[in-house]
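Hey, sorry to bother you again with one of my protein questions. I've been staring at a protein lately and its backbone has me curious. I owe you a coffee for this, so here goes:
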Amino acid sequence: MVSKSKDKKEDNLEVVEHALTNTEHFIEQNQKTITIAIIAIVAVVGIFLGYKRFIVAPKEKEAQSQMFAAEHYFEKDSFNLALNGDGNYLGFLDVIDQYKSTKSAKLAYYYSGISYLKLGKFQEAIGQLKKFKLKDAMIQPISQGAIGDAYCELGRISEAIDYYIKAARTEPNAFVTPIYLMKAGELLESNKEYSKALPLYKEIQKDYPESSEGRKIEKYIARAEAGMAK
């Protein structure tokens, strides 16, 4: 038994030694290629880090600085100035044009879309808001809901409903989800689609009873049930 165990260990050692020998031989034969590959990887990583540090970061900082005034005008409901600038600072549209790929430019799509919505330019609002791709748990559903508002203003009710439901489902939370569930439900009711509105109302009742919509939802449920009974 001892002899067999010893033989097995020796066989395993021979396998390992053979593998190591093959590896060493491969490295010796391909040393130049391996060195070039390592240098190339280091160079690519270095270029990427340098690009992020010396180009992207300063450009992002500059974009944020330029967009500060536009955000200020937005907060004061001066939407034309927010969109187009005041001659000294850029507007959201300029930020999008001049600082492509920055986080500020991505955020500017949201701001410009809401600005157009407030100005009654609904098709332009939809165009800008659909380009907003920045992942944000609060802003993302609001942007979807704003598209729904724009479609609603244009009389495109089915598309408005779709976007309200999408807004409710994007990042469910107690602040915005019941708002958009309610908006979708009311539009479905206006289309006499009571059987589709009712589950949305009941979802508000079950999951968001403390919300403003939840506190008055019983009358909406009763109204939808009455509509279904007709």
